[in-house]
Amino acid sequence: MSKNYTSSKSPLITTEVYKEFSPNSKYIESASDDSHQLDTLEKNAGTQSLLHNETAPTLSVADAVAQMLGSLGVGYAFGVAGGAMASLWGALSNSSIEVLNFRHEAGAAFAAAEAYFASNRPTVVFTTAGPGITNALTGLFAARGEGAKIILLSACTSAPQRGRWAIQETSTYTLPSGGIFTPGALFNYAITVESAAQLPQIFRKLALALAQPGGFVAHLSIPTAVQTSLVEDVSWPQLDIAASAIAPHKQAIAKSVELLSAGPFAIWVGFGARHAAEEIRQLAERTGAAVMCSPRGKGIFPEDHPQFVGVTGLGGHASVFNYMQQQPPLRTLVLGTRLGEPTSFWSPLMVPKGGFIHVDIDPEVPGVAYPYAETFSVQSDIKAYVQELLQHFPDTRVDSIPLLLPRPERESVALDLDIDYPVRPEVLMAAIQKVIVEGSDAVVMAECGNSFTWSTHLLQFPQTNRYRVSTGVGAMGHAVTGVLGAALGRQGKAVAIVGDGAMLMNNEISTAVKYKIPAIWIVLNDARYNMCHQGMQILGLKGADATMPVTNFAMIARGMGAEAVGIVRESDIEAALEQAIASNSPFLIDVVIDPDRPAPSGGRNKSLAAQGVKSTPAKTPAKAVSFPLV
Description:
There is one protein chain. The protein is an alpha/beta fold. It has three domains: 61-228, Rossmann fold (3-Layer(aba) Sandwich); 250-390, TPP-binding domain (Rossmann fold); 417-619, 3-Layer(aba) Sandwich (Rossmann fold). It is built from 21 helices and 18 strands. A six-stranded parallel sheet has the order 2-1-3-4-6-5, with helices on both faces. Strands 9-8-7-10-11-12 form a six-stranded parallel sheet. Strands 14-13-15-16-18-17 form a six-stranded parallel sheet, sandwiched between helices.
């Protein structure tokens, strides 16, 4: 990518140098000095007035950082305040950035990630020292894995107090510097700001990195004393950054065309291809290629399209394996997915005879999931690659697919008044499909666990950017709290389908109420960590207890100020969903579901069998169950 940046005498943010001035620095000891005191105060006041008229207010490091973040395009800051970062909190709150005070730092980080994906603008997470930072790390780890652009702004202990047991001390005495305060697996860029003089270079590094394709997670840690220090001799560089995609080499396109023209091929779509939905559709229709997607890529290619064969991996469809066995492609064009365990389970059944053409902006991704398979690697932005590829295929649509492609199975479960209670998850998903997916434009998020598998398997999205799941980390609480960021970022409704375990672990209902965020939670309430419970059954393992006390989430939500309804009968589901969509307030639907309905994962269990995982036949339910790879 070409980058053009120049310094200018007219900086992006202009700051000047001011010295701290106090008119009351001298103590007057006696009443006889009153007239002198008055004269001194009048003179000083006059001098102060002159300085005030001739110069702008003093700018602290905290104020400068807030201005810097605003100039980088940050619109939202999510976090939990504390004494060590009071100056930063105040500066953010008085800047152009909208500040949202959360109840837990992990929830703030999850929300920041989803706000980025919904708005395509970088976001900030702010924390105090000590546990503020460590609480946020899981959410930031997920953000890095998901490919979000986030800047963590934290406080740390000032240099003179380090090693002296300061409150919530944050230093090398209490936390490892490597990985938290330095670049590595967690942060793309990390630095402790010890001087205002560092800010221009930090601004430059952040601006250039945020303009690059892909994710970027940074950490700026600012000691408490430095936050209030004055900015001296700082000027912000004027950067003219040409944002451009990583284009494929001509040789890579030529080789791709040669390989794809040699026989039938499939397209495997991942989340990294979300900005190339239209181009991928055109390529599929011109070539007749079958299309499958990762769980995160769900909806990028229309799921009601006749060339769509299903979702792969966790919660995926057996139709994908049927296609790979009955009508195997010669090669598979992989676009924007790492083909990791949640997407492929590394099943050899997914490897075509001619191997993969794997396209990704990260050159280290292709070939990792299937190191033994023949792989032609292309480093490129997906949209740029497919646009180039389209130039080499006839501009005609393949109106008839040579062979009838397998389609994802769609189970219809009719309402039955004889079994109206408890709610079957299949019936709940059918109602969500009708009222929310087809009847609104809301973003739908699914939490990890059985919520993930039911939603991924049964919901069908005909358009892109409507479905979000996290597979890189799969942390409980991601969707429960991330739904706030999704609603904010898109300025509209966002729905989280979650389990009761995640809802008990970390929710931000109170935050949604405070800021009037139109988030909707649909809680699959079965009084279990049910993915674990069902998984232990299928593996024939005894003794582990995955149950929890029954919880009335509707009562909890109403106690926090949200609207809520409890559902125990299938016949009441649609009315509750319609009420939630129509509401302008945060809304929770507490659905008591049948805990014994095994979650769908027929395709996944074929993958597990292919990898040699065995279950105990006597304990295997009649229908396949979803459970993490053991």
